[in-house]
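Retry 2 of 3 after timeout on previous attempt. Resubmitting structure tokens to design endpoint.
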């Protein structure tokens, strides 16, 4: 059996069946059905956010967010090269320029002290990532954005259930986007969310994701990014089991940490913020040891992932300024398997292999 970095969580199947029965009764399969609406309400309640729009995935959520803040071709957006490729590739896909700003070597998030030096007349927005759920320096970033009149979009794909100073992290910036992909902490198989404080912006987004229709007629430029009732049903089931999911992940996370803390370096957690235990990244002394260990684990059918490798500033279709810190971290980081159902024997096997390859 393959042990992967993640295993999508599946909720109580009987509950899912109940939702399917309701779909079979009312024949509402997609297009803002009752389950999608209910999911949006429950997510607002659970996350303590004013508004969320449920969309097809986290990638299109970013693309819609760029439209909502009025970005236009050739505008520049300052972002981090240490993320999943979608953060930057969506900018290029929309004809925008991703301008890379290096990360902090301890937090792995964008280094807010370096943002100002990347700003020019074309700069219109900042796109930071709460990487591995670690909150960015949201207050510093807000100050920079105010001074230079820039918008802020947070790619919060990893930050489900993360608070910053008693407030949900999704309430910072102009817009935050979420991914509800099967491998994420909370998921709807495929799915995503757009979060903002402004109801008018959400209603505009609701038109854009439905081909730009208003009263069934073309009204503005749009795309199709609606999600289905089947996806919403999965989300509703999983949301009910979140307490269990978070507890289990914390238990698995703590076990790794207590066994590995003397042998590896770790991401420095933002002190104003909680850990959602979405990922368990460890930092090796060098790439050679990482590759040797990875090879040994793969031989035992264990497949941690090199999140995030390579640093996005090295990709030929994205590259601009070199970001040496991001490149260094990307070369030395490995995310260990963490998911509900990962047993202690497997964790022990992983821990043993990591320790025996240290030199
Ligand atoms: C998963 C992820 C995305 C993309 O989300 P999808 O729902 O898979 O499209 C974007 N950004 C980050 C940081 C991610 O981890």
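Retry 2 succeeded. Sequence:
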């Amino acid at each position: 059996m393959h042990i992967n970095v993640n295993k999508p969580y599946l909720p109580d199947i009987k509950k899912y069946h109940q939702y399917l029965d309701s779909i079979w009764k009312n024949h509402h399969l997609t297009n803002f059905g009752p389950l999608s609406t209910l999911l949006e309400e429950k997510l607002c309640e659970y996350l303590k956010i004013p508004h969320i729009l449920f969309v097809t995935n986290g990638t299109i959520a970013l693309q819609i967010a760029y439209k909502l803040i009025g970005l236009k071709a050739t505008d520049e957006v300052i972002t981090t090269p240490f993320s999943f490729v979608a953060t930057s590739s969506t900018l290029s896909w929309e004809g925008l320029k991703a301008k890379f700003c290096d990360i902090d070597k301890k937090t792995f998030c964008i280094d807010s002290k370096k943002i100002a030096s990347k700003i020019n007349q074309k700069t219109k927005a900042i796109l930071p990532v709460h990487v591995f759920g670690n909150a960015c320096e949201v207050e510093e970033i807000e100050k920079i954005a105010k001074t230079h009149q820039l918008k802020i979009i947070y790619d919060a794909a990893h930050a489900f259930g993360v608070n910053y100073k008693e407030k949900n992290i999704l309430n910072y910036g102009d817009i935050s986007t979420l991914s509800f992909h099967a491998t994420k902490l909370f998921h709807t198989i495929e799915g995503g969310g757009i979060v903002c404080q402004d109801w008018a912006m959400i209603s505009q987004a609701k038109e854009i994701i439905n081909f730009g229709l208003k009263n069934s007629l073309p009204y503005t430029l749009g795309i199709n990014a609606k999600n289905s009732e089947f996806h919403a049903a999965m989300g509703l089931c999983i949301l009910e089991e979140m307490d269990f999911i978070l507890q289990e992940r914390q238990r698995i996370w703590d076990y790794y940490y207590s066994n590995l803390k003397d042998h590896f370096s770790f991401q420095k957690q933002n002190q104003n913020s909680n850990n959602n235990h979405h990922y368990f990244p460890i930092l090796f002394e060098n790439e050679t040891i990482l590759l040797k260990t990875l090879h040994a684990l793969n031989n035992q059918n264990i497949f941690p992932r090199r999140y995030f490798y390579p640093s996005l500033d090295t990709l030929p279709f994205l590259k601009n300024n070199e970001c040496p810190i991001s490149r260094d971290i990307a070369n030395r980081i490995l995310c260990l398997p963490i998911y509900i159902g990962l047993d202690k024997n497997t964790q022990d096997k992983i821990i043993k292999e990591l320790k025996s390859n240290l030199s």
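Attempt log closed. Residues 13-101+108-240 form a domain with the Aspartate Aminotransferase; domain 2 fold (CATH 3.40.640.10).
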